[in-house]
Amino acid sequence: MAAPSPHRAVPGAPCWVTLLTSDLTAAQDFYGAVMGWTFRPGSLGEDFSVALDDGRPVAGIGNVARAMGVAVSWTSYFAVEDADTVASRIRERGATVAVGPLSVGHGRAALAADPAGAVFGFWEGETLREWNIGHAGAPAWLELRTRDAFAAAIFYGEVFEWATGRPDRCEVRYEDEAVMVRSAGHTVACLRGGAVEAAPDPRIRPRWHVYFCVDDVEKAVETALAAGGTVAAEPDDTRVGDYRQGREATLRDPEGGLFTVTANTG
């Protein structure tokens, strides 16, 4: 297989996901068993690896959660043209840039939290042409789970220049009581809120949630349990518009990293 080719992603579109973990070997063992991934060393040193699905880069894993003082979690990254400009927009809107922008490899990266506390990253630099949400082993779907999806859409829209009408930016539309984000005619993310008038549920914190395709949801759940993971939501049928439908289950890896497996409908 030819080496993945770099290119510039659509500004504001998802461009990568990384698991921030505190045990690289254990994470590789778990996701290798559940997802069938293999791994190669990353370009950022011995604490990083790249997960591969049939030889294609799927996600990164970084043994940095303990050093950074953050919870083990999957983090979604969005492509930007100028990391400093995006960092300024985030701060101007009362949100937080926690790390960076820092020079990383051939680009610059940063970690931030939106006004509701959902953590996300952004990346200035080349991305992998083969990595596209919903295609060829990349995550099937990204979903922001928050309290007020419309407030979140305004924040991210201003930060990443969504819905500006420019052909090189993401589009936004309201569908099935959620905000859908589209890039080049393809749905890449969803912002979903709860009951704004209700009291906040202390067990739920706003987060960007990652969905991965598997051939058999029930088998993935069984394998995850055998590998030391836990089930956060049992397998069930789901439907989101005409884009994502079928079986899914939400899992936690042995260190608490939360993700969802969804049926590969091909």
What does this structure look like?
- The protein has 266 residues and is an alpha+beta fold.
- The protein has a single domain (9-263), classed as 2,3-Dihydroxybiphenyl 1,2-Dioxygenase, domain 1, CATH 3.10.180.
- 18% of the residues lie in helices and 43% in strands.
- The protein has helices at residues 24-35, 65-68, 83-92, 149-160, 217-226, and strands at residues 6-7, 14-20, 38-41, 48-53, 56-62, 73-80, 96-104, 107-113, 119-124, 127-128, 141-145, 171-175, 178-183, 186-192, 207-214, 230-240, 244-252, 258-263.
- An 8-stranded mixed beta sheet has the order 3-4-5-2-6-9-8-7, covered by helices on one side.
- Strand 17 (244-252) and strand 18 form a beta hairpin.
- Helix 1 packs antiparallel against helix 5 (217-226) and helix 3 runs antiparallel to helix 4.
- It is globular, with a radius of gyration of 17 Å.
- 41% of the residues are buried.
- One of its GO terms (molecular function) is dioxygenase activity.
